[in-house]
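Side project, low priority. Logging it here so it doesn't get lost.
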Amino acid sequence: MIGSTLADKIARRIRAEGPLSVAAYMAMALHDPELGYYATRQPIGASGDFVTAPEISQVFGELIGLWCALVWEQIGRPDPVVLAELGPGSGALAADLLRGAAALPEFRRAIRLHFVEVSSILRAEQQRRLAMADPVWLTRVEDLPDGPLLLVANEFLDALPLRQLVRGCRHWAERLVAVDPDGRFTFADGIENPALSLLVPQTLRDAAPPGAVFEICPPALALAAMLGVRLKHRPGAALLIDYGRFPSAIGSSLGAVVRHQPVDALISPGTADLSADVDFAAFAQAARAAGAAVWGPVPQGRFLEELGAVQRLAALSARASPAQRQQLESGVERLLDPRKMGTLFKVLALTTLGLPSPPGFNRSDWMQ
């Protein structure tokens, strides 16, 4: 049965307006201002629902800081430079990034730190950890100040609300969230529409069997286009790290997690983290069409190794206790191992046209 207060709110909306798109359901479940997941809980860490790479190893954020410093040199060492993180979570990545950036004092002094964060709970944690860095908080990427930009987004795209399209007998239809006679949330198919079919890549559109699901994420595509336009007119780069698909593929990837365990995405909205695979091919295409150079995606493990993850681990281990050394080694292994996060997570870079290959990418990684 629908039991939580947010579930009641969603059910009332469905009964009043009709079934919701999956995107509308995700938006309410995650971002309802009073009852949504990110408005009511601290989700990150061992005591939360999930952990991200910055909580696993400090090496991750330090190498991202090194990447930003090297790209800053490639774009002409501008001072000031906007360094923005989308969805900074606990603030761990930014704290480690700034420590890595300190290796180049001129870069550290040039940074104007900006966070795009909608959760008041996470903002408080970021403030506690990073008050000395004097960050500026925003709720929209569009509000970032003009000028040279270095942008980082780790596990940000996967939580953006997405639409699911389902193959019907002749055309594709919107997959919806409805309420069944017993009061439970359930998926339902909308009306087949030739226009919706055009949203599916032609290579997948006609070959998919009835009932097949294809996912599109309009907010991600809008972000890609916005960054592409900005990087076309202003020097800079964006680094996006997430789990996802390349190339685009058929299949539902919508999932939910509570206390590090998978749960049904339609049960108790507002109490679980919802996410889905990132379509890196679609994101890259939108950014390139808007004017950015696109690099990758490449596996996270390869990216971090090329930035010096093994060497950084050795330096930290040399002055660590045996217990600390074991923790350091297990954390870096988890980030690099192809059987863990090394290939599951992918790294995509956007840069201003004409720049050299960004660190961690080869010329062959340039997407033409």
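Brief comment: The chain has 15 helices and 17 strands.
Revisit when time allows.
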